[in-house]
Structure formats: C-alpha cells, structure tokens
C-alpha cells in the first residue's frame, strides 16, 4: 500500500491562530480525505479532497474554518483556521485505494490549542 | 443513514486468552466492512476488510472477522492475544467511497 506522511506530527498553538497540516502520498491517488478525531472519540470525516475540484465538506464543517487544498495527485493540505481549544484533536488524512471503499491512513497530526 | 455500533467501550483480556470485539451495522445492502486498529499515539492501521464472498475473512496480526448478514454483524476475533494487541479498535462501514466509524473499543491486555 501507499506510504502516507503528515506534517507536523504534533503542534501546540495559541487560540486565534491558524495551522496548516500537510499530507503527502508516495503515489498518485484520486481521492483523499481529512478526518478529525477529538479526544477519546471516533473519527469524523471533515471533507473529501479531489484534485482539480473544490473539496466536498460534510455536515457541520465549513470551508472558512477548514480550507483544503489539493494541488496535485500526491499532496493535500488542511488548514484549521482561527483556532479555539475545541479544535484540539488528532487530524488524519487518508487515501482511497482501488475500486472499493478501502482507505489507508496517515499517522495523524496531534493538535493542542491553548 | 448507515450507522455502526460497537457495544463494548472497553474490554480487558488476559494475555494468551481469546478476544472478540462486536460490531453491528445498519445499512440497506451489504456494505463494505472494515476493522482498523489504532495503537497509542499512532494512526489507523487496516486489519481486514470484507466485500463479498467467504464470510470469514483473515487479516493481519492473526485477526479474523466473520460477516453475518442475518445479524448485521461483523465481529473481530483473535484466538490468543498478545500484549502488543492493546489498542483502540474501530469497525467501519463503507458506502459511496466514504467510511463511517463506530465509537471504538479499547482493549487492555493484562499479564
């Protein structure tokens, strides 16, 4: 399977600031996804990022808060804007593999907002 | 809308004992079914998946899962647990290329 990396692996940020998380894949993929995992919780899909088109956001997530870029088939970024302590979570990117719904995940970015 | 239920929030098992984690889903058709494991401080690793065919699927690390259509279940099993199996386990259902995750089951392994 593809190798997926994320940067940074963790960060501590001040409220009101923004953080951009990078997701890099070692092969070309059509579909990439961004998830949020709040402390002690399961994963919630934020948005689907397709190359060449706007990201598709899930209910409860908006582009102004979580802008996403997908400049090519191996890279995507998620920005967490105007952060508050409630944004403290692990953010994970994933890729869709093959014709099924199988997804492989990056190692995650652990974000703490003070 | 589809949903995934993992009834057990936390399971403690002795090393060497067997383990079974329950997963039930609600979906009109047979969905794609997955089990992922998340070790502390790590991302998610795919253990196994079911799409069709043989209802007993084998995965990595000695895990297997059985799909039972009549019970809408996809339970994960391991005959003999190792201390390294202590982790969070997530069941997921795939529909239209998206995954919906259960709440997760935390497995603690005692010596």
Structure, described:
- The complex is a heterodimer of chains A (114) and B (111).
- Chain A has 114 residues and is mostly beta strands.
- Chain A has one domain (4-106): Immunoglobulins (Immunoglobulin-like, Sandwich).
- Chain A has no helices and 11 strands.
- Chain A has strands at 4-7, 10-13, 19-25, 31-37, 43-50, 56-57, 68-72, 75-80, 89-96, 103-105, 109-113.
- Chain B is mainly β and 111 residues long.
- Chain B has a single domain, classed as Immunoglobulin-like.
- Helix content of chain B is 0%, strand content 55%.
- Chain B contains no helices and 12 strands.
- Chain B has strands at 3-5, 10-14, 19-21, 24-26, 32-38, 44-50, 56-58, 64-68, 73-78, 87-95, 98-101, 105-110.
- Chain B is globular, with a radius of gyration of 13 Å.
- The A-B interface holds A 31, 33, 41-45, 48, 92, 94, 96, 100-108, 110 and B 32, 34, 36, 41-46, 49, 51, 90, 94-99, 101-104.
- The CATH topology of chain A is Immunoglobulin-like
Number of helices of chain B: 0
Query: Whole-number average pLDDT of chain B?
Result: 93
Main pleated-sheet profile of chain A: 7 strands, mixed
Radius of gyration of chain A, taken over Cα atoms and rounded to an integer in Å: 13 Å
Task: Using the 3D structure, state the CATH architecture of chain B.
Answer: Sandwich
What count of domains describes the coordinates of chain B?
1
Distance between the termini of chain A: 36 Å
What number of structural domains do the residues of chain A give?
Answer: 1
Characterize the overall form of chain B. Answer: globular
Task: Please sum up the structure shown.
The complex is a heterodimer of chains A (114) and B (111). With 114 residues, chain A is mostly beta strands.
